[in-house]
Amino acid sequence: MAERLVIGHQTALDFWRASRVASEGQHVLDDVGRLYGGRDLRLKECAALAANLCNSSTPVDAVAERRRCSDICDHVFSGPLTKAHLHDIDQYVSVCQAGPMLVQLATQLDQVDIALVAYELCGTYGLTLWAEDTFQPDLTALTSRAELMGYATSAKALGVRGATKAVSALGLVVDGSASPRETDLGVFLSLSRRLGGAELGGFVMNEDLSVPKRHQDALGAKSEVRPDFLWKDAKVLVEYDSNAHHLTPQKKESDEARRRVLEAMGYTVLVVTNELVKDAAKLNAFVDDLTCRLGLRRRALSKWQQKSRDALRERLFGVQSQP
Hints:
Elements: E1 5-7, H1 9-23, H2 43-53, E2 60-63, E3 72-75, E4 86-90, E5 93-96, H3 98-105, H4 111-122, E6 126-127, E7 135-136, H5 145-157, H6 163-170, H7 180-190, E8 204-205, E9 209-210, H8 213-216, E10 224-225, E11 229-231, E12 236-241, H9 249-264, E13 268-273, H10 274-277, H11 280-293, H12 303-317
Protein name: DUF559 domain-containing protein
InterPro entries: DUF559, Restrct_endonuc-II-like
Domain DUF559: 228-279
């Protein structure tokens, strides 16, 4: 029988991205190449099959074995890879689960990129780079921060390459992000000021918040709302309006009613827009306001910290276009 390929790194990420969307009824995984008859597959055929099943391309990223094949990019990985850490997608191909995959990716990506991937895996959206829309909303989370942290911590104790960076990146991650823009803002809010972030962690994302009966009529009889970001103890929340200029009058009125109800419930509501996060002065003012609302006192950013923030802002949010 032909060798089994254990797929990891970026090819594994391609698989999980595609399979999450496919599981919600959108067919993105091509069936071509699944059947080769009764004979065992040659190594290049296994690689082609793996690329097809993972919605990826050759060379595919493989771990666990060293092979000489131009269609396979072999990686040394010393982390635990038991049956529980693998997902079989064919008799010839297995894919690493999210935990080992993230540690593997941490050997190639920096802390911010690892955090962005982890937010996606623990969130309710999936990137769909092959489609017109950049992401698919309302998906089931593939994993949780706790599960990813459990594997990364164990791998770190074993001295596995990439595990230390993965653990550090997961310190920025919160479950429940509903979009790439929320993920970008989550990373910015959590990252240290030294690295350009706001260093205002401690929030939860998209958790249900009960609305008292006396306020439910204003929300169309809804008994719960889901703030994008919520600091429970401080009763401060942040809503991200990424498309503020494209909302219908009805949606704007609904959002305003929601904010009035939240304020009546004793919550401070801050709103973030695409225009705000792309403008250095506006973003700094927002961070200062949020810092104050959370009851914290901070020194003004140093020139070096501001330079780091400008670079991070451009990386995560882009630059405000000039009129």
